[in-house]
Amino acid sequence: MRIVGVNRRQEDGRVVGRRVPSRIHASQTSVNDLEQEDKKEEEEAAAALPKEVPVLEFVRCELHEDEEEIDQLERYLQRVGACIESREDYEGRLVVNPETTLSALPSSYLKDVIRQIRGFNIKPLQRQKISGADNVKAEGSGEEILLQGFHWDSWKQEGGWYGTLGEQAEAIADAGFTMIWLPPPTESVSPQGYMPRDLYHLESKYGSQEDLIDLIRVFQSKGVKVLGDAVLNHRCAHEQNEQGVWNQFGGRMDWDARAIVRDDPNFHGRGNFSSGDVFTAAPNIDHSQEFVKNDVGEWLVWLRTNIGFDGWRLDFVKGFHGSHVKDYLEVSKPLFSVGEYWDALEYEWDGTPKLNQDAHRQRTVDWINAAGGLSTAFDITTKGILHAVFERCEYWRLSDAQGHPPGLVGWWPSRAVTFLENHDTGSTQGHWRFPHHALEQGYAYILTHPGTPCVFYDHMFHDEHLSHVIKRLIALRKELGIHCRSTVTILQATNDVYAARIDDALVVKLGPGDFHPRDEECHIADRGHAWAVWRLS
Question: How many CB atoms lie within 10 A of CB 512?
């Protein structure tokens, strides 16, 4: 639907001019049909308009296809001198072309039109642009600091989670975060969003599509990039087939069993064999199918351009080959991407983590390589090793055989997203909860070391003391220019002390043992429970 403005002037606060029939542009109205007086009035109105008319670009509207409601909208637009030039009906909705403009209207009049038509769910939308020349930026600027902007029960928030985050947006930006990871936005069988069904239906337990767009714009206006949680591995069906199996999809992506891998044990897929682990709770999607690849890629581009996401957190990427991720990133061109390649660490027979976790981090590196190096990955190796360090007081584990950090951050720091907790490991699920007594030390490690650190929402907003520590460490990281490729020189790794120099900027010490830098030109920058950071002059 294209909404067209009509040249009219204001007189004593009221609009003067002729009404224009619906779906007819003013320029199509023959002046011969107007009386001479009206013609003179139109000429005066045109002369009174500013040389550069204000333009409202990217007006977007989604209405249920209710003829009475549409007619009401048309009558209003007719009264104010705008009109509906064309309609595009799709799945019971009235959709405004994203390139729609309201033009040739004085600014005060334009504002009044905007205020009125918002009652019909028409609103400004600043579309993102993706050009073929853009490069995929796996690590963003290299100086990113990520906040996971939700926990497992955020969907229960009264008034909607998007509204809560909007109220906290300024505090999040002021704390120094450059990115926020939002929960899955799609309609979902599970309220948390990880069992998606109609990918284009963004009415979730967290809020409406309109609320989501508003929230994204708020964060971006404060310089914070927004990552969408994209669940690509599996999708819940809308209907059962003749045998009663849930494998018939609806909505815009109305797939059938061909979209499901054939070795999925529960959903009778007719696609190719899976290229990864099978998620048993929902149909596993076959990304080798051309129609699937095209549809998913188109959806990601839609999320980027129409909704406004800057990048992705990719759920359960162990379920399909990294080459498919590469294809999706090349078409959607995110400004940052991180994959959840969840893999178990290596353990001894008695449950003790092995000192050498090279095989574990190698599997993560292999996935990143398969994705063309276009995505980062959560550094689960580092999380597991930090657990062992703080649970067993074995700080020597923080150095590998070559004297480097023992996680993914020690091998490929620009592709490592370090973290302590997330909605699965912590929150009300607690599947792999980080040692609570060592949370300060944990953040002292990831916020002073290379990689891209990710802070969990609960630690930022549900623990006032820890929040202050995190904000101080973020400020120090920014002040000293620590980034995802900073160098680490390990100075000590013993039973009760770990110490390292980061670039030529700082020295950090963890553990209950004694340590002080030998460099005379260093000054204590911050300290806390069993940790300290020195600034190097």
Answer: 13
User: Per-residue confidence of the chain (537 residues) as pLDDT tens digits?
Assistant: 444 443 333 333 333 333 333 333 333 444 455 456 555 655 554 454 333 333 333 333 444 445 565 566 566 555 555 544 444 433 333 333 333 444 444 445 445 555 555 555 444 445 567 755 567 888 999 999 999 999 999 999 999 999 999 999 999 999 999 999 999 999 999 999 999 999 999 999 999 999 999 999 999 999 999 999 999 999 999 999 999 999 999 999 999 999 999 999 899 999 999 999 999 999 999 999 999 999 999 999 999 999 999 999 999 999 999 999 999 999 999 999 999 999 999 999 988 899 999 999 999 999 999 999 999 999 999 999 999 999 999 999 999 999 999 999 999 999 999 999 999 999 899 899 999 999 999 999 999 999 999 999 999 999 999 999 999 999 999 999 999 999 999 999 999 999 999 999 999 999 999 999 987 789 999 999 999 999 997
* φ, ψ dihedrals at 62, nearest 5°: -130, 115
Asked if residues 197 and 238 have their Cβ atoms less than 8 Å apart, the reply is yes
Count helices and strands (H / E) in the chain.
13, 25
Say which residues have a Cβ less than 8 Å from residue 506's Cβ, sequence separation at least 6. Answer: 448, 476, 480, 482, 525, 533, 534, 535, 536
Specify whether the CB–CB gap between 448 and 509 falls below 8 A. no
- The encoded tokens of residue 280 equal 């048993």
Contact between 194 and 188 (Cβ < 8 Å): yes
Query: Does the global pTM surpass 0.85?
Result: no
CB atoms within 10 A of CB 419: 25
Closest by CA to 486, choosing from 383, 405, 367, is 405
Catalytic site positions: 315, 340
